[in-house]
């Protein structure tokens, strides 16, 4: 074979290789784009399903609040429909979780866990509460997820385990700024409320937890934010904060501390 023929053959082979490589690259890129678009679509479906679950639970709370309405048949019918819708939405989001678990967030799993608890599947609820904690990207979200799990344990009459989780949640909130004080105060308040609503009630423990919440709220340097938090706490323990103008309308009723 002449040198010119060899060169022509080599160029042809090289051209074929480049052509094949280009085709493979194009196919891979196209696959990558298609995969990304598919994941974006699934993520959107997850978000919409969870929004619907949240909206459904809000409707449930609204109906439950108005359960004293005269037409009890209407109340029962609406309550049943909301329950059925809850189950349908839950199955939808569980299907999406199974399809693309990497797209799920700690907030997603926390919502699933709450809904599983509502439909009565406590074993599955606990699994998802733990998942929410495990995949939390930072201590703040891990703290929120841990509080939700603690609530669940109290509802299951596993109070000792719930206390451990509440204590963990407090320890996860780091720093000495206003946000940290507010978050820790919220956790102590939530803990105290759980202790107060799940017999047998240890009144001393409840008082200590509310006192811990009050201390955190008082340490918030922004006066208005501090008073707003203390006013919310007042709804549970009746303690008036004398230094807050918003308490003036209460005419100093309650106990000043």
- Summarize the helix and strand pattern as letters: HHHHHHHHHEE
- The helix fraction, in percent, is over 70%
Structural class: mainly alpha
Extract low-pLDDT stretches.
6-11, 13-18, 20-25, 27-31, 250-257
Rg from Cα: 28 Å
Number of strands: 2
Output the number of helix runs. Answer: 9
Concise description?
With 257 residues, this protein is an all-alpha fold.
Please describe the structure with a list of short key phrases separated by commas or semicolons.
two-stranded parallel sheet; 257 residues; mainly alpha; single chain; 2% strand
Provide the fold topology.
Elements: H1 3-65, H2 72-99, H3 106-119, H4 122-134, H5 139-155, H6 159-172, H7 178-197, H8 203-218, H9 223-237, E1 239-240, E2 255-256
Parallel strand pairs: 1-2
Task: Please explain how this structure is put together.
It is a single chain. This protein has 257 residues and is an all-alpha fold. The protein folds into two domains: 8-104; 173-257, no CATH class. Helix content is 78%, strand content 2%. It contains nine helices and two strands. The chain has helices at 3-65, 72-99, 106-119, 122-134, 139-155, 159-172, 178-197, 203-218, 223-237; strands spanning 239-240, 255-256. The chain has a two-stranded parallel sheet with strand order 1-2. Helix 1 crosses helix 3 (106-119), helix 3 (106-119) packs parallel to helix 5 and helix 5 runs antiparallel to helix 6. The N and C termini lie far apart (104 Å). 29% of the residues are buried. The model is unreliable at 6-11, 13-18, 20-25, 27-31 and 250-257 (pLDDT under 50).
